[in-house]
Protein: PD-(D/E)XK endonuclease-like domain-containing protein
Amino acid sequence: MLLYDPVSKKLYIADYKPDLDFEDFGNHNAHDSFINSIPQIAAYALLFKEKFGIEVEGLIFNSEGAWTFKPNVVLNPINTFMLGIYPTWIPPWQPLMKYSV
Structure:
């Protein structure tokens, strides 16, 4: 879903995640946390920039709350973390990273 906030004048790639936990940062059930959706939404935002040349941010939400983020701010640390664990890992969003600046 694409949302526009007229107050901040920002576009968001938004994804409603009713079954995920807004506040669980991986302490209990990491697979049920918003954090697992970040790469998906961030990659969508980079695809949007690639295709249309428009900056967008990510938004994950449900009835408990919402997270907003910039794709490059979240994907770079994920890349670093994953490469520290799996040195040969290639991020699936790697071709899009040139659009994250």
About this structure: The radius of gyration is 14 Å. The chain has a mean pLDDT of 84. The helical segments are 38-52, 71-85. The CA atoms of residues 27 and 101 lie 31 Å apart.
